[in-house]
């Protein structure tokens, strides 16, 4: 683990799903303080469900979630936000008719009464992180480009005083150059003391900036390792190219995660 050894976020043996469908089968992972970790895998692997289960949007059928060593299993999404666990969802979900500044300030709605000065500091920090948002601060969010909207979504999450940020497909629908800029900014969050769990289909870009990663297939983690190990793995190359072996066992360079069930 890079950076501090403190575990900022830990999920243990998570099982979750929708109705009669189980989407996650005993998933365990952890994110260290100041660490950026990715979960990659094909469409339908359960990546989005994993983030929703951790952030309280999908109830757990089994398992445990810990934040900074404290058990937060079953707590509401709002309670988790107050504790510093913030979920930036897929497709951004901004308030299109509100301005950039209004969207950002809504991210801090739980904080204004108790720490208004800290909110203003974080507002300036977000504008420094995303200078284009300072230029667009009076512009309606719905008129921004896709890349600018993604920056705004991340910035809104940071305004909640996030210590652990869950990012769901931040590159979705973005041009390659903009995608690279987004990931370069995500890499900067490490230096601000923020832990990041990143779900992403663009494995190549994700592994360029993260410390470690997990490969999720059919609701099970079948592989984990450092970014360098995963990039060299034959399985990751096959997932990235969309030609996944049926068995999921063709693992080069990294052994399967001993804490996870094999496929």
From TrEMBL:
<dbReference type="InterPro" id="IPR003439">
    <property type="entry name" value="ABC_transporter-like_ATP-bd"/>
</dbReference>
<feature type="domain" description="ABC transporter">
    <location>
        <begin position="9"/>
        <end position="243"/>
    </location>
</feature>
<dbReference type="GO" id="GO:0015807">
    <property type="term" value="P:L-amino acid transport"/>
</dbReference>
<dbReference type="GO" id="GO:0015658">
    <property type="term" value="F:branched-chain amino acid transmembrane transporter activity"/>
</dbReference>
<dbReference type="InterPro" id="IPR017871">
    <property type="entry name" value="ABC_transporter-like_CS"/>
</dbReference>
<dbReference type="InterPro" id="IPR027417">
    <property type="entry name" value="P-loop_NTPase"/>
</dbReference>
<keyword id="KW-0813">Transport</keyword>
<dbReference type="Pfam" id="PF00005">
    <property type="entry name" value="ABC_tran"/>
</dbReference>
<keyword id="KW-0029">Amino-acid transport</keyword>
<dbReference type="InterPro" id="IPR003593">
    <property type="entry name" value="AAA+_ATPase"/>
</dbReference>
<keyword id="KW-0067">ATP-binding</keyword>
<dbReference type="GO" id="GO:0016887">
    <property type="term" value="F:ATP hydrolysis activity"/>
</dbReference>
<comment type="similarity">
    <text>Belongs to the ABC transporter superfamily.</text>
</comment>
<dbReference type="GO" id="GO:0005524">
    <property type="term" value="F:ATP binding"/>
</dbReference>
<protein>
    <submittedName>
        <fullName>ABC transporter related protein</fullName>
    </submittedName>
</protein>
<keyword id="KW-0547">Nucleotide-binding</keyword>
<dbReference type="InterPro" id="IPR052156">
    <property type="entry name" value="BCAA_Transport_ATP-bd_LivF"/>
</dbReference>
């Amino acid at each position: 683990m890079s950076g501090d050894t403190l575990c900022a976020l830990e999920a243990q043996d998570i099982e979750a799903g929708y109705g009669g469908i189980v989407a996650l089968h005993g998933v365990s992972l952890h994110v260290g303080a100041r660490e950026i970790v990715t979960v990659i895998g094909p469409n339908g692997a359960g990546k989005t469900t994993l983030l929703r289960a951790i952030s309280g949007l999908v109830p757990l059928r089994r398992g445990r979630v810990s934040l900074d060593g404290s058990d937060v299993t079953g707590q509401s999404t709002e309670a988790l936000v107050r504790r510093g666990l913030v979920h930036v969802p897929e497709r951004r979900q901004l308030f299109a008719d509100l301005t950039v500044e209004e969207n950002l300030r809504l991210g801090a709605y739980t904080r204004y009464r108790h720490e208004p000065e800290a909110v203003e500091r974080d507002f300036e920090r977000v504008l420094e992180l995303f200078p284009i948002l300072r230029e667009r601060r009076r512009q309606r969010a719905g008129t921004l480009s896709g890349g600018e909207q993604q920056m705004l979504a991340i910035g809104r999450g940071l305004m909640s005083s996030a210590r652990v940020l869950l990012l769901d497909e931040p590159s979705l629908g973005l041009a390659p150059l903009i995608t690279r800029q987004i990931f370069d900014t995500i890499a900067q969050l490490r230096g601000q003391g923020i832990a990041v769990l990143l779900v992403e289909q663009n494995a190549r870009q994700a592994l360029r900036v993260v410390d470690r990663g997990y490969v999720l297939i059919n609701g099970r983690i079948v592989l984990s390792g450092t970014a360098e190990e995963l990039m060299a793995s034959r399985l990751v190359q096959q997932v990235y190219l969309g030609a996944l072996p049926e068995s999921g066992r063709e693992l080069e360079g990294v052994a399967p995660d001993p804490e996870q069930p094999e496929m």
